[in-house]
Amino acid sequence: MIFFLFLRIFENKYNSQTRIELYVQEYIPNFRSEYMCFHTSVVTPKGKVQERYNRLFKPGVEFDPLYHTSGFSHQEILVVTNNPERHIQVATWGLIPKWVKTNEDATKIRNQTINARSETVFEKPSFRSAILKGRCLVPVTGFFEWRTIGKNKYPYLISQKEEEIFSLAGIVEEWLNKDTGELIQSVSILTKVADPLMSIIHNEKLRMPVIVTKEKEEQWIDSTLQKQQIELFFLPKKSLLEARSISKFVTSKSDTNTPEVLKQFAFDGIEEYFDSENLSLKPKDKPKVIQDSLFCE
After folding, report:
1. pTM for the whole structure
2. Which of 57, 156, 199, 211 has most Cβ atoms within 10 angstroms of its Cβ?
């Protein structure tokens, strides 16, 4: 009863895409709290996406720019796999392992598989098959994270400095809904310990999505890679990210899939821009983990 009372409070305060994960972060801090890459954006026109990945969209796939989407909405997002037709496809965000038996179980598990932790992805039953044979790229123009200062959280949009579109590391799997006969392709985004810039922004959870550099994209989706080769993608590397503060409209009750959600916004006394190449860390912003121990718990 208490759980549903909290959800009702959040329903009144936040939009439907964000209220569940905000509830989880605020009231159940240990529940999958180390993952937290729940919000992305991809606003590039369809033609530019095709040009960027040297692939056409799969026939029948519709694509409209997504200014803001949340993993908890389980919306279809873009994925690039090693399919022979070299098509850009879509997959539902929140991986459903092929061994799931019922639609009820699929609905439950996909809230727990929005992200996959790179440190344990080879061990977890939900992911250990997909990480070996179902790796994909998730095209984005940015992703969102919240910076905690005192009791307040401030949203930031993170993007690549030199790439309008860049790729997050994902894993996909197909699941057959035996009730309907529908074959559903679903996806999880991999995360790792935050780099110096993301340690400033995501300063409570210290996580970030795994980013695949442009020159390594085809290698990432090569199904012949072995575990040791895959793990190299999770190692610390130089970041070319930048982060801009945006307004709290992203957590409003309104429809947040609009250009307004991407606009830079200045909060009093809060830094509104960070550049990974020109970081000047204040004592309170210094990462809580050292670079040569990024995968320590």
Report:
1. 0.84
2. 156
CA–CA separation, 107 vs 103, rounded Å? 6
Report d(CA 263, CA 246) in Å as an integer.
Answer: 6
C-alpha distances (whole Å) from 76 to each of 92, 169, 245, 279 are 4, 16, 26, 35
Task: Copy the structure tokens of residue 43.
Answer: 């606003």
CATH number of 33-287: 3.90.1680.10
Q: Could you tell me how far CA 123 lies from the centroid of its own chain?
A: 20
Does the structure show a pLDDT above 80 at 283? Answer: no
> What tokens were used for 94?
């929140």
Domain map (residue ranges) of the chain: 33-287
Alpha-carbon gap, residue 83 to 222, rounded angstroms = 10
Q: Per residue, what are the HEC states of 15-48?
A: CCCCHHHHHHHHHCCCCCCCCCCCEEEECCCHHH
